[in-house]
Amino acid sequence: MDWQLVADSFWPLLRGGLVGTIPLALASFAIGLVLALVVALLRLSPNRMLSWIGRAYVSLIRGTPLLVQLFIIFYGLPQLGVRFDPWPAAIIAFSMNVGGYAAEVIRAAILSVPKGQWEAGWTVGMSPVRTLRRIVLPQAARVSVPPLSNTFISLVKDTSLATVILVTEMFRKAQEIAAFSNEFMVVYTEAALIYWMFCTVLATGQNAIEKRLDRYVAH
Amino acid sequence: MSRTEPSDRPGPSDRPVPDTLLTARGIEKSFGENHVLRGVDLEVRRGEVVALIGASGSGKTTVLRSLNGLETPDAGMVEFNGGPAVDFGAQAAAATGGWGVRREGARQAKADRAALRDRSAMVFQHHNLFPHRTVLDNVIEGPTQVKRIPRATAVGRAEELLARVGLADKRDAYPHELSGGQQQRVGIVRALALEPDLLLFDEPTSALDPELVGEVLSVMKELADEGWTMVVVTHELQFARQVADEVLFLDGGVVVERGAPAQIFSDPAEERTRRFLDRILHPLD
Ligand SMILES: Nc1ncnc2c1ncn2[C@@H]1O[C@H](COP(=O)(O)OP(=O)(O)OP(=O)(O)O)[C@@H](O)[C@H]1O
Ligand SMILES: [Mg+2]
């Protein structure tokens, strides 16, 4: 085994992760969550048209491969005159994807809050929107931390797909180094270990957040 | 905790305030095929305690929730002295009209619901405290968020009320850290903090361990003695007998019998009332 190569490639790979993978995942997740909340509320809307739009969106996102979604946005849309650079294209595709998956998580979390909480909000004088914001969403947030963490960890790994639309994240770096050195096994395994490291750190963070939010939840 | 005079309410202030706070007439409600309320009348005078009794499923909760907009009856009306006066039959009729009528009807219904809600406060069977908020935050949520009372003022009043029910030291606790009786007392304080004209209680002690019932009932009795107007759904006949000014027995979607507790409990006029009371007072016979 070429330990020198392992050592030499570690920093470029890690750097690819820190300036590529992680920012891409963070930006997509943040935007995706906002989108997911909107889609979840559409789905929960008593208005049938709105709820249908929400359902259709979730169905389309979950029923098509992420790779194909990336290709449509980066290679397909330019033919309609809509052109994105690799980074914006990747963020759009990943956000939309998170929006579809996390919408279901958020919807379920909102539904898990007892109806009595809505009613209590109503009787103390709050509008439904205010009750949602101040009473229901904070409780739904606690419930959705574990599944949303899973969504985020999946996303971190899925960002490796962005290499096909030329985003220089960690996996693209790995491909470059591997092609140059011909040491595919070593370099890709090293990349895998760094992904694993990222995900382990994130899982630890998830536990910390759950503990913090547990404080005020009935046991 | 003394009652604030409802002088800020809209309404003719030059006439003497009539005795009646709330009138409900002909309340009807169906859930699908289940015709739950078949014309319920209710009148509550200021400072009076009305107890609603009846078998499980007789519609007591539905009556109570019709008074604060949590439930929308299919017909009938609910009127508060000083407003609002809500005609549910008209609402139902508007809902079957043309597009413009429906839209205007829905807008009116929404306003009616909120106006009803603003006159009362409710204590729930399962307290429904906000679990992610401290006791104090539960109590001041309504006053600060909705009534826009300055936080310091609201906190001062909340602390007073909490002290009155013996929970001054629990202001920073979370609801799950309290006993059932304490939770329910916080629920009562949360309602009082809204300074409503009417307090609605839906079996506030039926989810409690027997030894915790007394502490909640005694708070409610104090409120009654102070002159709060209350409608109480309850299975605690002892409480109804001691505290209520009027008892309504609900069965089959109508008020079968109403009257002073002494009369209802010792000498019910209706056979159905008699049987119901027998079942509760002598469950093993
Ligand atoms: N939201 C609802 N949807 C469908 N049916 C309902 C609903 N709320 C109440 N009901 C039905 O209406 C009837 C009356 O219910 P309600 O809760 O008013 O009775 P109650 O007198 O309060 O009973 P309990 O003593 O058990 O609380 C019951 O048959 C109940 O199943
Ligand atoms: Mg009930």
From TrEMBL, chain A:
Q: Which UniProt keywords apply?
A: Amino-acid transport, Cell membrane, Membrane, Transmembrane, Transmembrane helix, Transport
In terms of Pfam families, this protein maps to:
BPD_transp_1 (PF00528)
Q: Specify the ABC transmembrane type-1 domain's residue ranges.
A: 18-206
The record ties this protein, via Gene3D superfamilies, to: MetI-like
**What is the recorded membrane topology of this protein?**
Multi-pass membrane protein
What are the transmembrane regions?
20-44, 56-77, 89-110
Q: Which domain of life is it from?
A: Bacteria
CDD domains according to UniProt? TM_PBP2
Give compartment(s).
Cell membrane
Which family is this sequence assigned to?
A: Belongs to the binding-protein-dependent transport system permease family.
What PANTHER family does this protein's entry cite?
A: L-CYSTINE TRANSPORT SYSTEM PERMEASE PROTEIN TCYL, MEMBRANE COMPONENT OF AMINO ACID ABC TRANSPORTER
Q: Supply the name of the protein.
A: Cystine transport system permease protein
The species is Promicromonospora iranensis
